[in-house]
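Problem: given the chain below (197 residues), write out its structure.
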Amino acid sequence: MALKFHYNKTTVQLFKRQLAIRQKALPILKNKETALRLEVVKLTKELEDIQLQQRALDDKLENYKAFWAEFPDILLMDKIDIYKKKVIGVNIPEIKTIVFKIADVSWWNMPAWVPGGIALLKEVIRLKLKADILQQQTDILDLARKKTTQKVNLYEKVQIPEYEEAIMKIKRFLEDKENISKAAQKIVKKRKDSKAV
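Solution.
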């Protein structure tokens, strides 16, 4: 992206302001990029921990494998409250509550393993939802980190050098123009002086 500009003092002032804005924003963007990177690492670690818990629960589920076929449909998910939380200036989803509903059934006719199965199933669902939300959070923050990295690179490697170079070219042009003007004035003055003599 080559800058287009006029060779005048107004353009120099405009470019100096734009350059100052970018130079002030650059350290902030670098800090944001670092913070986002650390947050993504933290969430990835959390996600791995949740996946380990899920694998441990899968082993427990194996004990109930024979019973799942006769497991009654008494556990229902009533609602999931998800809200937006701001992390490093980025909105990410967060689970507030998960509400389960247990159908009205006669517990006297239920096998003894059903309450344990319900508790296990609740935990499986809770971990699955938590893992999904963590994955979404990681994806959103990683995308924000990539965009911030792109902006840092744009400022650092493209725009700041272009503005500095444009300011320098305009200043040189204006100095040359002024020097030529002064030289022309001297020549005119010398001619007048030589004619007067």
